[in-house]
Design a protein that fits this description.
InterPro entries: FAD/NAD-bd_sf, FAD/NAD-binding_dom, Ferredoxin-NADP_redctase_2
Shape: globular
CATH topology of the largest domain: FAD/NAD(P)-binding domain
Structural class: alpha/beta
Number of helices: 14
Keywords: Flavoprotein, Oxidoreductase
Number of strands: 26
Distance between the termini: 41 Å
CATH class of the largest domain: Alpha Beta
Catalytic activity: [thioredoxin]-dithiol + NADP(+) = [thioredoxin]-disulfide + NADPH + H(+)
Protein name: FAD-dependent oxidoreductase
Pfam family, one: Pyr_redox_2
Radius of gyration: 26 Å
CATH architecture of the largest domain: 3-Layer(bba) Sandwich
Oligomer: single chain
Number of domains: 4
CATH superfamily of the largest domain: FAD/NAD(P)-binding domain
């Protein structure tokens, strides 16, 4: 195998001894799969990078002992410009993290999104700490580039909405897959390998590792085919509705404390946070972590403790049972339980622009997952939204797109986006247009342009756009709940003291006060973004999901000891889901109306509805 055929790990170090030690340690472990290329300075590195790109090679990782100066660019930014998925590490000596100049260089490079992290030069062999960092870099690169064969292949037209939906479901579920255009040589080869030679209908086709062929499978069918459980069986102590950060935390803590837990998730593990390309400020991950990776780790943790999952299943109602509750799950199933934790999260609000409706999944996307990024290569991209999720999406898309513009209705980003993201947007050349809104668009089968209105002057003009990503608003997924579970006018669930304060105690059937996170129906709890007054952050949702288990235990204990009868709570109707709460009045300036309870500025999640996003993203 030639060095060009193998992905390259480039080592840029001026001092020969340091360069040799790094190269030797890398070659001892990685030369079967990677070509290790030593370079003595940034100018030579730039020439090698350009030559590699021109030859069609792959640069997986670059390690350099300084940023260099290439006519105003660093060697790291030059590498990213030619190879959007490359990982970049700043080589330092052991203990050099205490050097103020080195520290400032690393921090400034990371703040400008020109560096992933620092790498301590190996000082003994084998240096497993060094290799842990290297293998993490290579795993991230391999996942993003999709170079190796995948267990699942999706064959479907790029402009077909269902193709996008299936790929998004797989990506957010942590299922590696490759996407192939119908009629391509690669698609024909994959189909021939599983014995399919006839022409197939114009629908997405999913090929599995074991040779099965699925024609336009439903979400539950696809999940089951991959080995994910979709069935409901028996009873549970606790049913958790929703597998976002709050629901997963509740599942982990409840299962670890001996409760029988079933998690019902209608889409994919991770909720809105699962689509984030990188969460930089979640505790414990110094280099950041993608939303899908964080969600998959939490899912595996809950599974190890014995939590059960019903994937791609939607809860549609709650009924009172003589011994607790029954959660109705579409189409015609139900699960009996003693307690319920609602962790349904929120959805992005949709644009009220009829011209864009035909392009949903074909250039117009609600949310932003990693699967669309590479398809934006060479295109002009617009992101609507001013929260952290919008900022993270813009940075990820900027790796590939010809240009990225963040469009907000308000006067700026400072009130809704973390400063580190604003700084990175500036450093990466992402344009920010304020006081603007999208009012139209069009294209031939796929989105090609949008019409943007200046909110101050009223002027409208068409703008070239191959990808429109909408990350605004927060619509809580609570319309399916019975009316006995109190919500505010925006649909956020009331919990704890707010139940008594808002309902003047008339809607609370017990003498005791509601437990923390308990709704107006004793035994039903709410956590995360769907709860009124919650802080719309990943860390906050995880915290609520973990602490709610204490309240669940208290409720189960009072029922088991006879302190209160299970049926003493408000009787829940057997009726179909109630209509969505009345829509709030149109807000005066920002994207959506704010929740009733004020929330602090965004940090490690997308901002609240008042700030223009409301999703528990990064």
């Amino acid at each position: 195998m030639s060095s060009v055929a193998r992905p390259v790990i480039m080592v840029v170090a001026r001092e020969p001894g340091a360069r040799t030690s790094v190269v030797t340690e890398l070659e001892r472990r990685y030369t079967v799969d990677y070509a290790v290329v030593p370079v003595h300075d940034d100018r030579e590195a730039a020439e090698r990078i350009d030559a590699l790109a021109d030859e069609g090679g792959q640069l997986a990782l670059i390690l350099a002992d300084r940023a260099g100066d290439l006519d105003g660019r660093t060697v790291f930014s030059h590498a990213r410009r030619r190879f959007p998925d490359v990982r970049r590490g700043r080589l330092i000596e052991w203990g050099q993290w205490g050097d103020s100049a080195v520290r400032e260089e690393i921090l400034s490079l990371m703040a400008a999104a020109e560096l992933e992290y620092y790498v301590i030069r190996p000082w003994h062999s084998p240096d497993e700490y060094f290799h842990r960092t290297i293998t993490e870099f290579l795993l991230e690169w391999e996942r993003s580039i999709g170079l190796r064969p995948r267990e699942v292949a999706v064959i479907g037209r790029a402009g077909m909405p269902r193709t996008h939906e299936l790929r998004s479901l797989l990506a957010r579920g942590g299922i590696p897959h490759e996407w192939l255009e119908p009629g391509s040589d690669a698609a024909r080869e994959r189909l021939f390998a599983v014995g399919v030679e006839e022409e197939l209908p114009d629908v997405p086709v999913v090929l599995l590792l074991d040779g099965r062929v699925l024609l336009d499978p439903g979400n539950a069918e696809l999940a089951a085919a991959y080995g994910l459980t979709t069935t409901l069986d028996g009873e549970a102590d606790v049913v958790v509705v929703g597998a976002g950060p709050g629901g997963l935390a509740a599942a982990v803590y409840a299962a670890s404390e001996g409760l029988d837990v079933l998690v019902v998730e209608r889409e994919s593990i991770g909720g809105q946070a699962g689509s984030s390309s990188l969460i930089r400020n979640y505790l414990g991950f110094s280099r950041g972590i993608s939303g899908s990776e964080l969600a998959q780790r939490a899912y595996q943790q809950a599974w190890v403790f014995g939590a059960r999952f019903a994937h791609a299943r939607e809860a549609v109602g709650i009924e009172r049972d003589a011994d607790g509750f029954r959660v109705r799950v579409a189409p015609e199933d139900c699960i009996r339980c003693s307690s319920i934790v609602l962790a349904t999260g929120v959805s992005y609000r949709r644009l009220d622009v009829d011209e864009l409706t035909p392009f949903e999944g074909a250039g117009v996307y609600y949310g932003a997952s990693a699967i669309e990024a590479q398809g934006m290569a060479g295109r002009h991209v617009t992101i609507i939204g001013g929260g952290n999720s919008a900022g993270q999406a813009a940075l990820h898309l900027a790796r590939y797109a010809a240009s990225v513009t963040v469009l907000v209705r308000g006067t700026g980003l400072a009130a809704s986006m973390s400063q580190y993201l604003i700084d990175q947007l500036v450093a990466q050349g992402v344009a920010v247009r304020t006081r603007a809104e999208v009012v139209g668009g069009g294209g031939d089968g796929v989105l090609e342009r949008i019409r943007v209105r200046d909110r101050d002057t009223g002027e409208e003009r068409d703008v070239e756009c191959g990808g429109l990503f909408v990350l605004i608003g927060a619509a809580p997924r609570t319309e399916w709940l019975p009316p006995e579970i109190l919500r505010d006018r925006w649909g956020y669930v009331l919990t704890g003291p707010e139940v008594v304060a808002e309902g003047e105690r008339a809607n609370w059937p017990l003498e005791r006060e509601p437990f923390p996170h308990e709704t107006s129906v004793p035994g039903v709890f709410a956590v995360g973004d769907a709860r009124r007054g919650s802080v719309k952050r990943v860390a906050s949702a995880v915290g609520e999901g973990s602490v709610v288990v204490s309240s669940v235990h208290r409720r189960l204990a009072e029922v088991e000891t006879g302190t209160v009868e299970p049926a003493s709570a408000a009787t829940l109707g057997v009726a179909s889901p109630v209509p969505e709460p009345p829509a709030p009045p149109a807000p005066p300036a920002e994207d959506v109306a704010p929740p009733a309870a004020p929330t602090p500025p965004a940090d490690d999640a997308a901002p609240t509805a008042a700030q223009g996003s409301g999703a528990s993203g990064p």
